[in-house]
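Recap for those who missed Tuesday's class. We walked through two folding examples back to back. For each one, the amino acid string is listed first and its predicted structure tokens come directly after. Nothing is annotated here on purpose, so try labeling regions yourself before you check the end of the notes.
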Amino acid sequence: MKLHILGIAGTFMGGVAALARELGHDVEGSDQAVYPPMSTQLERLGIALRQGYDPANISPDCDQVVIGNALSRGNAAVEHVLDHGLAYTSGAEWLRDKVLPGRDTIAVAGTHGKTTTTTILAWLLEAAGRHPGFLIGGVAEDFGVSARVGGDPAHAAPRRGLENSPFVVEADEYDTAFFDKRSKFVHYRPLVAVLNNLEFDHADIFPDLAAIQRQFHHFVRTVPGRGRLVVNGEDPHLAEVLAMGCWTPVLRFGIDAGQGAPLDWRARLLADDGSAFEVLKAGEVVGEVRWPLLGRHNVMNALGALAACDAVGVDVASVLPALSAFRSVKRRMELLGEAGGIGVYDDFAHHPTAIATTLEGLRAQVGAAGRIVVAMEPRSNSMRLGAHAAALAPSLALADAVVFLHRPELEWDAGAVVGALGGQAVAVPDADALLVTLQAMARAGDRVVFMSNGGFDGAPRRFLALLRDG
């Protein structure tokens, strides 16, 4: 079958493209913005990428068009598909119909940490010899790809014996497509669902937190009684979701006290920066982790993944050592390099909570004397709409300096955020000005962290190149 994927450079749709190619389909695709790491992965797989949504980019011999949720009515390619009666589906539906049948699906949901937790879980299952399939919203450093079918260690084709082999999917609450406004995760019908946390986000499609909780409740309804819900026991918003109705045994994880229920899985921090911790199940020490990731939030991500492993029969103590070699995901506090004593990081954080927890982990590592400089692009739909504007300054409080990219199309005035940060912040109109400002500001010993969920005009790597050129 020949597929054309609209929105192919997105992290989810790029993963769908990789799975389709691995299953033997002829795959092509188009997108408005194509940038690494997904563009690099797709090119390496030999998938033809076409810039823009010109209907001419869709080959006339395509059997089906898979449409990403970034496209809506009025888009030229979408109108072409409808007007010409082409067969179409969403990425979530395609995954459900072509990959997940017969698999033990483990779905990881939550406002924060989905990508990292999904990757940790896949890595632990790999260490257990399960050879999982996965679809991750980013390129996993340890696998080199964002998605694979899995289930056959010999990589024989065609694949056989996939029944009951695990498939790990990052389960997003964002809507499915222009023709299906349900959250993507309701399509996956997992055996095990991990609920990492829940906060207000996606202000472009959800009016309030209660609307998101309703979608999470719908997701909970799809998990069978023989399965498991692995839930952040510290999160009051998730406790409210479970109170709406729950028909599946629940495993709760956390570091601090739970929300009215005991924690089945706990961590005891051995280092303030989260780089070392003990793992406890039902109050008994299972083992100790020393790994390269930082922050309390990543300890929570690991706990959720470990509890999910336990839920599918993995001996957790036997796979704990694998975390010492875990390399996470590209663009999750990814150290791009160092030059002139300055470390340059690329990070996907785009919500105030994620920004704050990331900086907390880095601050714990560098100490009070180390300087942290943040280059921030408010690019997500919620950020652009100003839904998180009031929380931005507090989330950046641990940075010593902030360069705020205030593009002309930003729908709110960043002056209040800059003002709240006092002399440690400045706003600039474009990426070129941001790089000039950072060059003048950064000095030996600094950690410069670029935070955006988009391409950021290639600023992180451009800045590192400027430093190396002196």
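Example two. Treat it independently of the first, because the proteins are unrelated.
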Amino acid sequence: MPAQHTINSNRLQHRIQTLADIGRKGDGGVYRMALSPADLEARAWLGNEITTAGLELRTDPAANISACWKPELPTRVLSGSHLDSVPGAGHLDGALGVLAALECVERIKELDIPLKHGLEAIAFTDEEGRFGGMLGSQALAGQLYPGVILAARDLNGVTLTDAMAAAGFDAQQMPLAERDRKTLHAFVELHIEQGPVLDSMNCPIGLVQAITGLFKWEITLEGESNHAGTTPMNMRRDALQGVVDFASQLQRVLDEYGTCHSRATIGKLQVFPGAANVVPGKAVFTLEVRDTDAEVMKQLGDAFQRTLFAVARKHDLVKNFVILSELPPAPCSEWVVETVRQQAEALGLAYHAMPSGAAHDCQTISSVTHAGMIFVPSKGGKSHSPHEWTAFKDIEAGTNLLLNTLIKLAS
């Protein structure tokens, strides 16, 4: 086994600390939503870091930012994640993957390692979903279309078209960021786990086997609003009772049709008219379901539809549901997974094979090249929160693993 290489830990730590302050507010959370002033500040800072490192800075029509080394080679290995955050986020989600990739590419340049494939550290646009999510990686993979771009707007009504224009881009040009898959050799994304598994095991590395898919529905149940005091219980058409009945069957459906990787969540509920003395005549709620197997996802979707039909009939309610989003599960490339595993063993790092329960740019990129992920532990499983934290020793271990994986894939 060739000698293992190591990163410049002080440089990586300094960059993590610097980026963490961009968009941070008084509550300790990071507010760096896609194409916001804080995101644009982070992008400018990253561009300066790239050029200072002596790497080629490229920005594509989807506003993806890249640091390239040996771009003259016909194919390349990519690594990266995203700079944007949810409101009130922690400082590592996405950002760590970008900065670790930059550190690895810069370190390989410094080591002057001979390469057969070029290297590219990339920061994708809007992974977290201000305008829908995964826009940058979808554009690169040829999955972003003009109709989607025109319809995209955030919760405040700001359109993607206007936000891109304010940042100096033409949103309608975003599909031109599509890459020829013949030029892509592999992709590896380093990310915090965002869950408690690795931390509970005191294990430094997650070897990601597959990335979950998901579907999200908005379900409406309609009955009849009526006086809470004068309407007997057996004569009510109570929409909220229908929601309660449906929610009580989530675990049953998962047990019968799901796997240990299945998840089902009702995360939002609105009841109308919303008065203490009125029987709820209407309820609107979301159902989000995840699994790493496409066939299991289909079975769960069918089972939840049957359950919804039975609940509506039982409570004399009118049912309706709208599909808000669908994202297919993605297995990681066996070749990339095996390369990561070999490098982890060479570095003497313990690892745990696991799925990703969260969606990532990697699953989009997996449609156009060999792709895989490396997880590092999240303390207490906390993420999307100011309490998000990963010990630097684990960050260093994960980035050293990424470094040696990229060297192996590119040489």
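Answers for example two:
Residues 213-327 form a domain with the Alpha-Beta Plaits fold (CATH 3.30.70.360).
The chain is about 35% helix and 25% strand.
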